[in-house]
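dude i think i finally got it to work??
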Amino acid sequence: MDNEDGRIFREAWIAGVKKHFPGEPKPGYITPWDETPDWERQSAAAVFGQVRDFIAVSGGNTAKLSREQKGRFVALCWIAQIHKHIPDPKPSYVADWDALPDWQKETDADIFEYIEQAV
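look at this
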């Protein structure tokens, strides 16, 4: 997994949180890349790669997806990483799309679109 890919993912996450989070976000939500835990760095790089590969195998047609579809893809990929790295995650860490707060849905969609532009 490419460290730079993970950094791009994290930058997109932080930008989305700053844009969509109501009020002041928790410090952990906007922790800079260099201070991000290793498991989270690995997860960011993995999800970036999954989105990049999804864009590639679609022949670039992901632009036709709705923002919700893009956000759902990012959220599901992230949930898989949570299960990979955290043996017994809190339910909120692995919540399905419908249970996510709106700010997180918007941030996940932003991440997908950020990656679309980056690749």
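The helical segments are 3-20, 38-57, 67-85, 102-118.
im so relieved honestly
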